[in-house]
Write a structure and sequence with these properties.
alpha+beta; Arc Repressor Mutant, subunit A; two-stranded antiparallel sheet
Length: 111
């Protein structure tokens, strides 16, 4: 595969959620989306730390939104997936799909 950048499961989850949420990807919406779509509780600070790490790796970029009254005049930091992030997610999906093709057929109804 030749991949030089590896993502952990949580990093992959966060990167995927940013892709899904598109223009509405910031800390709280990501936490809510993970709860809704994965039925999984995650800590907001863990999400922020992971997004900053993915930004340092070049898979996300961030920008500041406008200040809002409901946030006491504070701005939201939004995140957007980069082309490198999209390419890595595709590479990871393709690798996983290729592995599943190698597995014997399972009857998931019996599990």
């Amino acid at each position: 595969m030749g991949r030089t950048n590896f993502l952990g499961e949580f990093e992959e989850l966060i990167l995927t959620m940013v892709l899904i949420l598109d223009d509405d990807a910031y800390g709280n919406t990501i936490v809510k989306a993970i709860k809704e779509h994965q039925n999984r509780e995650v800590n907001l600070s863990s999400v922020h730390i992971t997004m900053y790490r993915l930004e340092e790796k070049g898979f996300l970029e961030s920008y500041m939104g406008g200040a809002t009254n409901e946030r006491g005049g504070r701005k939201k930091r939004y995140f957007k997936i980069t082309n490198a992030g999209k390419a890595l997610l595709k590479e990871m999906k393709d690798a996983r799909t290729n592995l599943w093709k190698l597995t014997p057929q399972l009857n998931f109804n019996r599990i």
